[in-house]
Amino acid sequence: MRISTVTMYEQSLSALNRQQGEFTRVGQQIATGRRVVNPSDDPQAASRAVQVAQSLAVTGQYADARVSARNALSQEESVLDSVGDAIASAKTQMIRAASDTLSDADRDSVASDLRGIYETLIGQANATDGNGRHLFGGYQDASEPFVRAADGSVSYVGDTNVRQQRIDASRTLPVTDNGKTIFQSVHSSAGYVAEAADGNAGNVTFNGPRIIDESDPAFGNAFQIDFQVAAGATTYTVNGGAPQPYEDGAPITVGGLSITLKGTPADNDSVTMDRASNMNTDLFKTFEKALAVLEQPAGTDAQKAARSNTINTVMRELDNSLDNVLTVRASVGARLNELDVVDSVGANRKLNYTENLSNLMGDLSNPATFAEVVSEYSLRQVSLEAARKAFVDIKGTSLFDRL
Q: Which domains does the chain show, CATH number per domain?
């Protein structure tokens, strides 16, 4: 059989290229630390590795989302802590203002302190995160959620939605609370609040109401006590019922509630009792009522009674607002704890994906696998050198050497 020089060169070059390719492949395995460098090395493992790598990437994205959620919740928790301290300070100021030993000037000084707390609360309610978004505006987070009108009153212009973030494949977590929930609501467990009518002309004051019997069939209803003064006799009715004689300082029991009235009411004076959720639930309106009564001198008995009743109502409303803020703060803490749990689960999942990917791609950190690849590398190196030597020998073959 006659073999041409061209055929001899082509076969030798093909063998050289093949050995060079195998040698390069094993070298890439050592360089990358993986057995499967190209899909052709192990198509099935490479296909599964793509899926595992995608799952690993998604797990990383959820981890980043949890970092963002934790930052938002931590900022909210910090603001709510300040809000709770402000409400507690306001309650302390109102207790001071309730003392009969204070003069109008003293109460005006208390009002100055209270106004400072009020301004601080407005600032906290309009707090922003690190990206300039307002924490408590719901989806309307580009502008301040609480705005002040021309008369000085504060109103909420945000919405009732809450921003949410997906922190895992099956969990979407609220990362903020809207301002209405925090500053214009009370907890569902809040009790009753009493409030005297604005136009009361007498000097009757109230203490309470206190809950004494929640099993009363009328418990949970609203009650209005109206006073009638005729022919020197003072009576009262509850929700328009039968008149009953009024006794100064004696408690009135109705619907499982007890309220103590003192002083002398005028005709058509009234006091209303209702669940806190049906009365004023706006923390800023509570401050506005307190400031109005403390900054206004009280010269008559009726004005002093109105001031005392307003302070009593304000303190009850402050208690309810503080309970509500603490409840929201507890919810934020629970969500932060949930993030810790999901973080732990996510870390374990990431570890499993990483180990699975390592097994599929043939991680050379395994000593047995590394030794196998190094042995193959040495073998391919010897084969490549043999192919080169054979090519040199074949290339040098000539008939002239036989003459």
A: 41-186+281-361 (1.20.1330.10), 191-278 (no CATH)
